[in-house]
Write a structure and sequence with these properties.
heterodimer, A: 85 residues, alpha+beta, 3-stranded antiparallel beta sheet, 32% helix, B: 234 residues, alpha/beta, 9-stranded mixed beta sheet
């Protein structure tokens, strides 16, 4: 079993209202000095067997078609998290 | 004959009964369609109503796009069948690529519910022929993810081709690009908008009008447009 991580972020030019809300809340709790917050999504996809190039290609395709909407989001990273027996 | 207008119910759909009522008040026959059945039941048009299909999980409309009924809706829409997506239904239409662009959270980050003035920018779609170009109407607006976004090239194309169907008037309630409230496809048979025409179809239950409280019925012409159009071509 292995887990593939997919990170999806709102496109830089798209306003991120959630990130803005979090950014506004931080100083209220005393966390100063953070200039900007952008909030994205992390997906953990656990697959049976080895992570081959083919599996990764499939996950990348899934990331582009279902996990993200290319109009408003970018898939910023697809990585393998861990291999365990 | 009567025009048969299907109204799709997804898990989490809220406004299917109001949409069906609007169809009936417009003189059409409302036909209940279910997300899990790949069967359009011989309808002549389809309404994708508002709500929170699949809890808005992943993105609004993202999961509903893969419901068995949607394959049939997409085929029918490509063949010219009138399809109207309201609110969450509009989000589904963008996710399934029948309409361009997407919706993100309102720029002010709050849910909003108000009577909203719109300008009809294209009275030549399957759902707007009973309006006049430039006519202003008031129908309810209620959403969280209502900010319409698309890249500038897409927006320029929409404007150039007359595919901006509705624009917010007076105040842009969610930060939508270029005040866009609703759009149509090239052919004019598929229309999506954020505000809710199906909530302004019967005196006593609509937005306030000049004449009396809750008497606004500006949304009814969406449905009479489709019903009359279908009967004219039948």
């Amino acid at each position: 079993m292995a887990t593939i991580l997919v990170h999806v972020m709102p496109k830089p030019e798209i306003l991120d209202p959630q990130g803005k809300a979090v950014g506004a809340a931080l100083p209220r709790l005393g966390f100063d000095g953070i200039a900007q917050v952008r909030q994205g999504k992390r997906f953990e996809l656990t697959v049976d067997g080895e992570v081959t190039d083919e599996v990764l290609a499939k996950v990348r395709e899934a990331a582009e078609t279902l996990l993200s909407n290319p109009v408003i989001e970018d898939v910023v990273e697809v990585t393998v998290a861990q291999e365990s027996a | 004959m009567t025009a048969r207008v299907g109204v799709v119910t997804f898990p989490g759909t809220l406004d299917d009964r109001d949409a069906a009522r609007a169809v009936r008040l417009a003189g059409g026959e409302a036909v209940a369609l279910f997300h899990s059945e790949a069967d359009l039941k011989d309808v002549d048009a389809v309404v994708l109503p508002g709500g929170f299909s699949y809890g808005d999980y992943l993105r609004a409309g993202a999961i509903a796009r893969f419901a068995p009924i949607m394959e049939k809706v997409v085929d029918a829409a490509r063949g010219g069948m009138p399809v109207l997506g309201i609110c969450n239904g509009f989000q589904v239409l963008t996710e399934v690529h029948l309409l361009p662009g997407s919706m993100i959270k309102n720029d002010h980050r709050a849910f909003i519910c108000r009577d909203q003035t719109l300008r009809v920018e294209n009275a030549d779609t399957a759902w707007t022929t009973e309006y006049r170009d430039g006519e202003e109407i008031v129908i309810p607006l209620k959403n969280q993810d209502g900010q319409y976004v698309a890249d500038d090239r897409t927006l320029d194309a929409l404007e150039a081709e007359g595919r901006v169907a509705f624009r917010y008037v007076g105040w842009n309630p969610n930060g939508s690009r270029r005040d866009i409230a609703g759009i149509t496809n090239e052919r004019g048979n598929v229309v999506g908008l954020m505000p809710h025409p199906e909530h302004a179809v019967e005196a006593g239950f609509g937005p306030d009008s000049r004449e009396a409280g809750r008497n606004g019925v500006d949304g009814l012409a969406f449905f009479t447009s489709a019903v009359k159009g279908l009967l004219a071509t039948a």
